[in-house]
Specification:
- The protein folds into 3 domains: 18-101, Phosphorylase Kinase, domain 1, CATH 3.30.200.20; 106-278, Orthogonal Bundle (Transferase(Phosphotransferase), domain 1); 300-429, Kinase associated domain 1, KA1 (TATA-Binding Protein).
- The chain has 435 residues and is α+β, with helices and mostly antiparallel strands.
- The strands form 4 sheets. Strands 12, 13, 14, 15, 16, 17, 18 and 19 form an 8-stranded mixed β-sheet that branches. Strands 1-2-3-4-6-5 form a 6-stranded antiparallel β-sheet.
- Strand 16 (371-376) and strand 17 (382-390) form a beta hairpin.
- Helix content is 28%, strand content 22%.
- It is globular, with a radius of gyration of 23 Å.
- It has helices spanning 56-61, 65-77, 108-112, 119-138, 191-194, 201-218, 228-237, 248-257, 268-272, 275-278, 315-319, 346-359, 413-421, and strands at 18-19, 23-31, 35-42, 48-55, 86-91, 95-101, 106-107, 141-142, 151-153, 159-161, 168-169, 304-305, 311-312, 335-342, 363-367, 371-376, 382-390, 396-404, 428-429.
Amino acid sequence: MPAIEDAGDDLPSTAEKTLFGKYEVGRLLGYGAFAKVYHARDVRTEQSVAIKAINKQRILKGGLAANVKREISIMRRLRHPNIVRLLEVLANKKKIYFVLEFAKGGELFAKVAKSRFSEHLSRRYFQQLISAVGYCHSRGVYHRDLKPENLLLDENWNLKVTDFGLSALTEQIRPDGLLHTLCGTPAYVAPEILSKKGYDGAKVDIWSCGIILFVLNAGYLPFNDPNLMVMYRKIYNGEFRVPRWTSPDLKRLLSRLLDTNPQTRITVDEIINDPWFKIDYKEVEFHCDHLELKDDEYDSPTSTSTSDNLKVMNAFDIISFSSGYNLSRLLDDREVGERFLSTASPEKIIEKVVEVAEGERLTVVTRRESCVKVVGGHNCNFVMAVEIKRLTDELVVVEVRRIDSEVGPGHHIWKDKIRPGLSNLLYKTGPASCR
């Protein structure tokens, strides 16, 4: 994104300067057709963050509401050291704000544009890229626009994948087992996308990773021509030459990454076992933490506590029930939630959730007085967090958020088991659902 100094109209007025009382907004880092990205500071922790401000009216006019929903859903489920983390999503009637981890080192593109990298450094960044991409694929996420401009560097010069606006999810795959949406950046697009017959999201990401590795090592693109159709022909035919300084092992890996036949193109597992790739490679360990309890997140400055140590719903919480502020339309069906009212005690509600969850062989990973988190399913693909807040002396609001990451044993756990088990605690349906 090009950097400019004009702050535009996507943030509070100059007199306010603090977004939702939480983030002190600074310089504009860059902009696109529908969003602007700013540097900001968390007023409580002094932590630097990036805020992506999206104009609701523009995305609705541009027919991109589904893209924003999908991007939120995707980023909230991804927790990996080489992926930019979505800290929270805020919204008002006009704007949606993504609060993101700040990558101080800027774009990888800016570094490689100055000079090609050594083979050792190219390997280091490629290892981090493949670790992130493999993690995404294991969670049914396909980036589809991998390129150096979408790879950032943190203060320790570690790689961070960003911009999931064009990403696809497993449920978008058609009955033929393929994706069909044409997207991506011309120089990085895989040949099977050009054929317009459908493609495997994982395979096209691997192709893009091959282009990135080539650029890191060579300092220029393998397929490039001022005439777009000529460039597409080169991509389709796999016409490229590696520079003379490329080692035999790297040359062999590049030929497998940039294999024009997706059926024989190298896979993530094969990359990890490649002799060139394996040098000094350290595998990242993952945990079931891709859905956090809100109790672990930043409290609103207007939150209060009661004698039973429950958070009291503040004005912004209550307003969020209304359709004007409801973020439900921004959430993909894979990450959903519901709110309901109850006269039962928080202790009784938590006990019931734990009882039903354990009966379904789910694991309780966090349990507190007012919140509980359970996980289960294959590779922790079912995650549920329950938080209770005080509304009145008699009523509490029970908010349930969950991720059903695959069709399988965990997919209907909430609908068929846990929710029915809580039915006798239900007072009445809340004013709005987060579905």
